[in-house]
Amino acid sequence: MGFDLRYVQYPMHEMSLVQSIMNIVEEERDRHKLDRVVRVTLMNGRLAGAVTDALEFAWEALRQGTEFEDCELKVIEVSLKVVCGRCGKDFEPEDTLYMPCPHCGLEFGHQVVEGKELYVANIEADEPD
């Protein structure tokens, strides 16, 4: 099944991200002498700038006719966690732009401790013969 990319409503930058992910997986597969890759797990933070649905769509489009044709992509979304710049308490803001601390009310100046990541967390492959 082919995809007509003229009608894709997602940012095209996810296509290049997925292509890079596939390259990373190929390199790791070769380095560890793995057989066929069956699942790739990706961590996607809320501030990473990648839309999970778009990553999944790009994976489906780019894996067709490749060694990844039967490979599943599992995307785990990482919530945003920050530490307040005033009181030092951590919290998970609902918004990615406006983040008032629920403990002291400080609106800006927090340190992001989770939610910026975008990386391959796990590669599952068939056992070598």
Describe this structure in words.
The two termini are 31 Å apart. The longest helix has 19 residues, at 13-31. α1 packs across α2. Mean pLDDT is 91; it is low at 1-8. This protein is 24% helix and 26% strand. α2 links the parallel β1 (37-45) and β2. It contains 2 helices and 6 strands.
Comma- or semicolon-separated keywords:
disordered N terminus; alpha+beta; 3-stranded mixed β-sheet; 129 residues; 3-stranded antiparallel β-sheet; 26% strand
From the spread of the alpha carbons, the general shape counts as: elongated
Question: How large a portion of the residues is in β-strands, by DSSP E?
Answer: 25-35%
The gyration radius over C-alpha positions equals 18 Å
Query: Residue ranges: pLDDT <50 for 5 or more in a row?
Result: 1-8
Biggest pleated sheet: 3 strands, mixed
The SSE order reads HEHEEEEE
- Number of strand elements: 6
Helix/strand/pairing category: alpha+beta
Question: What's a quick, concise take on this entry?
Answer:
This protein has 2 helices and 6 strands. The chain is of the alpha+beta class and 129 residues long.
Show the helix and strand layout.
Layout: H1 13-31, E1 37-45, H2 52-63, E2 72-78, E3 81-83, E4 90-91, E5 111-114, E6 118-125
Parallel strand pairs: 1-2
Antiparallel strand pairs: 1-6, 3-4, 3-5
